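To whoever is on call:

I kicked off a structure prediction for a single chain this morning and the downstream step that reads the tokens threw a length-mismatch warning. I double-checked the sequence; it's 192 residues and nothing unusual in it as far as I can see. Pasting both halves so you can look.
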Amino acid sequence: MNPKIFLSSFLVLLSAIAACQSDDAFKGTELEGIPATDFTLTDQNGQPFTLSDQVGKVVVMFFGYTYCPDVCPATLSKWKQVQDALGDQTNEVKFVYITVHPERDTVEKLKAHLAVYSQDFVGLTGSKEDLLKVYNGYGVYREIDKISDSATGYLVSHTSRIFVFDRKGEWRLGIANDASVQDIVHDLKVLL
């Protein structure tokens, strides 16, 4: 075969493949057939928050704690950028932050901490028993690590993925906490 014809045919094939790739493809990991574990916890205003009551909105959920030195504040900062990038559509998205350290993260501490990032973020806590059910329902790992050179004397190692639920209340995506703002916005817009 003539090399020029081969190269030309190859480029046409690549263009066709690229054209077939949909903008609706998720950047995060799509989950199918995984039901959401419903729960009711207490928000930063002392009010009950039930996941199933959020049907109709896209829910973005993360497990963290207020004294986290790195991953949690970076995730919350990224969420604020995502919120800003969504513009008017941000009203259709609920950002939910669940503590992995209820011993320290009181409703007051959650409220003050999240207010630094956005008044619209929801911080949740509850009894150890209620939180354990949520952690188990989503396969969330958490463990207190004693560290003498930490200001608090310990850190809490925990799952750092972002969980995303669609408007029907189904668990649709897992997103790495180091995903770009653009990729998260893309995935949320697909769900919206």
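Update from on-call: the warning came from a stale cache, not from the record. Cleared it. Sanity check on the structure: The first strand starts at residue 29 and ends at 30.
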